[in-house]
Every structure is written in structure tokens, then in C-alpha cells.
Amino acid sequence: MFFRNLTLFRFSPAVATDLERLDEALGEHRLRPCGPMEMSTRGFVAPVGRGEEEPLTRTVNHCTLLTVGGEDKLLPAAVINDELHRKVQKIAEEEGRKVGGRERKRIKEDLLNELLPRAFVRNSRLSAYVDRKHGWLVIDSASRKSAENALTQLREALGSFPAVPLAPEEAPRVLMTDWLANGNLPAGLTLGDECELRDPATATGAIARCRRQDLDAEEVKEHLRNGKQVFLLGLTFDDRISFVLGEDLVIRKLKFLDVVMDELGDSQQDAYAEMDAGFALLTLELERLLGKLEEWFAVPRPKDG
To answer: What's the DSSP call for residue 105?
Structure first.
């Protein structure tokens, strides 16, 4: 149940109050199966269990977990194009004429209508949670598009959900470059073994990527002296969490270290109790990390009104 990536949004205290009706609102937007002629559907599914009557949220303290589910038809373009080519060639051979662009388009549409009901369906799940006390929406994805799609689902369910992307007052790229170049890291933060450096003056090229690398090495410092800046930086927080922080403040490769996992222990409880225990530990650790992120980069919480 531990998240692997974090795309973050913020919301005001008034919005937090409105989220008390979240479970009821999601109930009207459960995931439904794809119809015969649909390419995809989206909706909410239970974080625990698969039954249609399972609750769509799990709340521990001031944090509420939810899951956006999806069904997508798998109909590769190569399959359609191969079948289209076969039909066009057959017409050419049997009727002795060339198939024009308009007719080709109609044949392709007919093929889609024929193949779509028989296509395989791929299921997906994307977890997220809202921290009502501190005004965070945390989505388990490094993809901005996937995160925005999940936010859209929430807005449709609630009618309105004015969560906004982070707007740091301290430029992350500049601050992280200083951390790496001069070692001026905040208390509790240490360098990991991964970074991506780019020359901000060029749109293409001039990228240096380091993995499993001592970031204090001279070759890394040389890139910085030559004008490159930090776009991704591996970090460890309080010897409890490791992650890669982007200049967009998306957290990637999130990993809870052994000292944290040992606190969870080996539980023989039922699925709901185990989910709640894991979620409580996840949110407690991330509450501390996100609080520091807010402090380091001066990330404001939207105000009411």
C-alpha cells in the first residue's frame, strides 16, 4: 500500500471542510465496466476488496485514502492497420480499383466497430489521499497527466475541488543546485546517489545523469562549475525515507527504509486492519516530509476566499 511516487496539490481549509462528504460523493461515481463500443471508463473503486458494496474511502485520523480505477480496451494500432491493409488490398484485387482516402477512413471506422467489442480489457488502479488538516492532495504517480486525470475525477464527483499545483516561492532548481554544489542541505537531509544535471541555457542536449554515484565526486562538481543545474536529485530524509526530488517538486522512487518498515511489523490482522496500519504509517511519515518540503521551498497553502 506504500506509495512509490508523489504528485502534489494543495487546497484551502474551506475545501478541507467540504471533503467530509467525500465518501458519499464518490459513491455516485463508481467505476463501471466498459460498454461494447467504449474504449475506456474511469471511476472510483474500493481501496480494499473488490466487491461493489465495499466502501470507497478509508480514513485514518485526518487523512482519507481513495482509489481511481480504470478499464481500457486494448486494440493496438498495428492490428487495425494490418486488417485495413488486407481489406484495401482485397478490394483492389477483386474490383480492380484504388481505394481513396474517404473510403479508407470509412473502412477503418467499420473495423473499429467490429473489433472493439472483442478487445481485451486492461484494469488499472491509482491511489491517492487527502490530508484535510494540512491541505494536501497526494497522488501516487509521477505522471502529471495521470495525476491531472485523477484530479478531474475528483472534481466531477464533488462538483468542485479547487486543488492547485504547488507554487513554491523558492526556486527548486536553484535551491537544489546549491545543496549539491555547496553542501548546504537542511538538517535531516542527506544526498543520495542519483541526480540529473542540465544546462538551462540550451533547450536540447547538455544533460548529465548520474546513478549509483557519489554526488560529492569531482566530476559532478565539474558539471556544476560548467553551468549545469539540478533537475533531479536523490535525497534521504532523517534516514527513514529515500526519494528523487524533481525541479517540479514531484517525488519519484519513494522508498521507506528498514527502520520505518520494522515499525509496521508482521501483522496477522484482517485486510482492513492491515490497510489502516500501513496507511497510518505512510501518512505519518509523509506528513513530516511534506511539512519540510513546505518549509524548504516556501510552498504556500491556498487561503479561503
So the answer is: H
| Closest residue by Cα to residue 140 from 41, 243, 219, 218 | 243
What's the Cα-to-Cα distance from 211 to each of 15, 41, 185, 254, rounded to whole Å? Answer: 40, 38, 20, 15
Give the pLDDT confidence of 11-31 residue by residue, as tens digits.
999 999 889 889 899 999 999
The alpha carbon of residue 147 and the mean position of all alpha carbons in its chain are separated, in whole angstroms, by 5
d(CA 16, CA 133): 7
| Alpha-carbon Rg for the chain in angstroms | 24
Which strand (E) or helix (H) includes residue 296? helix 271-297
Cα–Cα dist 255/5, whole Å: 9
As given in the structure block, the three cell numbers for residue 2 are: 506504500
Q: Which residues pair with 129 in a beta bridge?
A: 65, 138
Residue at grid coordinates 497522488: 139
* Neighbouring C-beta atoms of residue 1, cutoff 10 Å: 16
Q: What is d(CA 45, CA 159) in angstroms, rounded to the nearest whole number?
A: 19
User: Do strands 229-237 and 189-198 pair parallel, antiparallel, or not at all (unpaired)?
Assistant: antiparallel
Q: Which three cell numbers stand for residue 101?
A: 482516402
3-state SS track over 166-211:
CCCCCCHHHHHHHHHHHCCCCCCEEEEEEEEEECCCCCCCCEEEEE
Q: Is the pLDDT of residue 250 over 80?
A: yes
CA distances from 172 to 37, 81, 223, 266 (A): 45, 45, 18, 38
Query: Quick check: helix, strand or coil at residue 59?
Result: strand
CA count, 13 A, side-chain hemisphere, 216: 6
- The C-alpha atoms of residue 218 and residue 237 are separated, in whole angstroms, by 24
Could you report the per-residue pLDDT of 125-150, keeping only the tens digit for each?
A: 999 999 999 999 999 999 999 999 99
Containing 125, the helix (H) or strand (E) segment is: strand 120-131
Q: Decide: 164 and 9 in contact? Cβ < 8 Å.
A: yes
Q: Exposed, middle or buried by CB within 10 Å (0-12, 13-18, 19+), for 187?
A: exposed
